[in-house]
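Extended Data, panel c. Modelled sequence:
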Amino acid sequence: MMRGRGERPATRPSAVLRSTGFGDAAVEETARLTESIKELLSGGREERLGQILEDAYPADVATALRELPVPERVHVFRLLPPTQAGAVLSELDDQTLLELVRALDEHEVSRILDRMPPDHVVEVVEELPKEQADKILDLMEEEKSEEVQELLEYPENTAGRLMSREFVAVHENATVAQAIEHIRKAATGDDAFYLYVVDDHDHLVGLVPLHRLLTADPAVPVRAIRKEDVESVPVDTDQEEVARLVQRYNVIEVPVVDGNHRLLGTISVDDVIDVIHEEATEDIQRLGGVPGDETVLDPPEAVFAKRLVWRMINLGTAVLAASVIGVFETSIQALATLAVFMPIVASMGGIGTTQTATVVIRGIALGEMTAGVLRRVLYKEVWLAFMTGMANGLVLALIAYLWKGSWLLAIILGVALVFNMVVAAVVGTLVPIALKTFRVDPAIASSVIITTFTDVCGFFSFLGLATLMIRFLL
């Protein structure tokens, strides 16, 4: 078997250097490109604008397009060469992509997608409404459309959806000379890192790095120089697992196989970088109670329902915490000073929870949180919670005594604070792991479930102790 990877859009070295600059330099370069586009548009200098766009990196063009009104965005996009237009489409955020595709003729979009690798077409098509996506796929070349639809059949966020079906593979009995000749004839583009080796039934039996192939004896069969121990992933593997594999083994391309170990496709490191960025963004947003797929450019009506759901859930947990306070309403009425210190205990539990949950959730994402290290992690977090709780409790007790002149109130505050910090550590460690066990994203734990635990336990411990000792406090 011999297959060739389809040609991908080439990038210009100068543009790459500009776009991968550090910090503000890259932002400034993109800003200059945007200003140049606006000036040339207003001056009607389309020929010069076309030259600038052709020299620019697709990611920079995508950023510039998003700052233009839709009519100007469409006009600029139509000035791009077809191959570069496809690369720009892949770089656009969801909202800008939808606005642009809706403004373009569907035949025009299909012609652009025909020039893109199938896995990149999937990235574009999956963001479109189903009716529009189906119509565009029908207008595409039959072979390309079928390849895209095959990829779309795999579940979202799996290796199957992420992989490219275009790769370079040869039979294990082929010679090095035959393999090199095949690579010459195959349009491999710039990102073919390995030559894959398969048997009579397309089973993956090894790979050969290109540098090893070029230095080997041309008459030697590739099976003699192949690397047999190949890290591959099943087609249904979650994309986060693929990213962890790339990070752990420092590979730049991962083969994807079916249940019979037949080679189906490959996932390159640039796709993995996108996954890491996507998953990190999702985790950060969910830690703040924001839907994981929301962007700053989404229209308000598109995210209203998602935001409302989370805020209603948070409202429910706040009412639960308030109901605990209501149990001790008589004590608060008798000693109003208690109301002054309640937010402190709850707030300290909240920060303790955030710190613990952030570390644990990150450990889960990196694959570091296994059953074997759970006890060690829990011990570490409880020890830190107790020791920092003691230090903060002493400071708070001193402040309470100097402020209100009551050693008993100061002791109650200190004890409640230590107790709540320990609860925060235990819950912040165990709840994310429990959610992961039940296949619920643990990133949602910090903003809703764990905060509720610390609020309820903080109020209950402080007000409960105060109620028991209230006759000595009055």
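The longest helix spans residues 374-404. This feature is highlighted in the accompanying rendering.
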